[in-house]
């Protein structure tokens, strides 16, 4: 039986400088054999990286951490969209009415995007 060892390594999280345990890496077989312990680790805020054929394939994280990651990703996409919109608005600011009409007509003739 595979025994999960406690890791002493810690990584300083940039926000607040709190200590975060380094993720544990396990094979998929080890995870299957020790699933309850793996869940306990994830619930204890220790990420578990699962490897298959020697390559990292998935991560097991606490649901609260997953929610924060999804929210952070959404915020990143929102920021990128706002930046792209602002850049497009800035580029379009110098266009004349006739240039805008020409662009609209060209877009209509190209049809909807696939």
Low-confidence stretches: 1-14
Largest sheet: 3 strands, mixed
Morphology call: elongated
Secondary structure category: alpha+beta
Report the C-alpha radius of gyration, rounded.
24 Å
Q: Any idea how many domains?
A: 1
Question: Helical element count?
Answer: 4
Mean pLDDT: 84
CATH 4th-level superfamily: YefM-like domain
Percent strand equals 15-25%
> Helical percent range?
40-55%
Description:
With 114 residues, the chain is an alpha+beta fold. It has a single domain, classed as YefM-like domain (YefM-like fold, 3-Layer(aba) Sandwich), CATH 3.40.1620.10. It is built from 4 helices and 5 strands, in the order βββααββαα. Strands 3-4-5 form a 3-stranded mixed β-sheet. It has a two-stranded antiparallel sheet with strand order 1-2. Strand 1 and strand 2 form a beta hairpin. It is elongated and about 70 Å long.
Overview features:
114 residues; alpha+beta; YefM-like fold; three-stranded mixed β-sheet; 5 strands; 52% helix
Helix-strand layout with pairing:
Elements: E1 10-12, E2 19-21, E3 24-27, H1 28-33, H2 35-43, E4 48-52, E5 55-60, H3 63-92, H4 97-110
Parallel strand pairs: 3-4
Antiparallel strand pairs: 1-2, 4-5
């Amino acid at each position: 039986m595979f025994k999960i060892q406690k890791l002493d390594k810690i990584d300083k999280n940039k926000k607040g400088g709190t200590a975060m345990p380094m993720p544990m890496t396990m094979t998929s077989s080890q995870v299957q054999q020790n699933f309850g312990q793996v869940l306990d680790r994830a619930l204890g805020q220790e990420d578990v990286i699962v490897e298959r054929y020697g390559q990292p394939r998935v991560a097991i994280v606490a649901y609260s951490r997953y929610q924060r990651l999804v929210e952070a990703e959404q915020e990143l996409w929102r920021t990128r969209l706002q930046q792209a919109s602002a850049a497009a608005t800035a580029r379009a600011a110098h266009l004349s009415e006739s240039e805008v009409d020409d662009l609209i007509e060209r877009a209509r003739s190209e049809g909807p995007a696939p």
